[in-house]
Amino acid sequence: MASRIKRRFSSLAYFTRKTYWKIVTAQPSLFVIALAVVGASIFLLGGGVYDLIVPYIPIGFPSGTKVLFFYPRRVHEQVFLESLTVMTVYGIGVAGFLTTYQSTKYAYRPRQAFMLLLVGCILLIIAYLYIENIIWLKMG
Q: What is d(CA 101, CA 22) in angstroms, rounded to the nearest whole number?
């Protein structure tokens, strides 16, 4: 054991070659790849790039004694809480799609299939209505 550790740390070329070979031959599961693609899509659609590029983004918009998470009457501006809210609601929508898809796997158990389909549709409707409400509030 000690000779193996000593060999790994004594030869930088050996360590680099082994690490490179592990990275090249790694095969992540399809679930991990799909999760990364969905996460990147939600980040892009939710305004994550805007949050990274704009130098100063306020967290919320003060409105008297309240703090709003969106700019009213300004569609082309957003605050940080708005983009986080939109990303979360998009995640709820994706969860609704996945739950609806999972319901198709229970064809021989109609009650469970119906319940999963109902939950998925409810999540989709909640996400759609919430996003529409945010857009309606922004437009005045």
A: 34
Which run of H or E residues covers position 62? strand 61-63
Question: How far is it, in rounded angstroms, from Cα 9 to Cα 11?
Answer: 6
pLDDT digits (tens, 9 = 90+) for 11-41: 777 778 888 888 888 888 898 899 999 999 9
Structure tokens at 75: 């569609």
pLDDT at 9: 64
Domain residues for the domain of 88 are 46-139
The Cα–Cα gap between 17 and 11 comes to 10
Residue 60 lies in a domain: yes
Please, which pLDDT band fits residue 136 given cuts at 50, 70 and 90?
A: confident
pLDDT at 121: 97
Going by C-alpha positions, the residue among 80, 85, 12, 91 that lies closest to residue 51 is: 80
Tokens of 47: 């305004």
Residue 25 lies in a domain: no
Looking only at the bridges linking them, the beta strands covering 61-63 and 66-68 are antiparallel
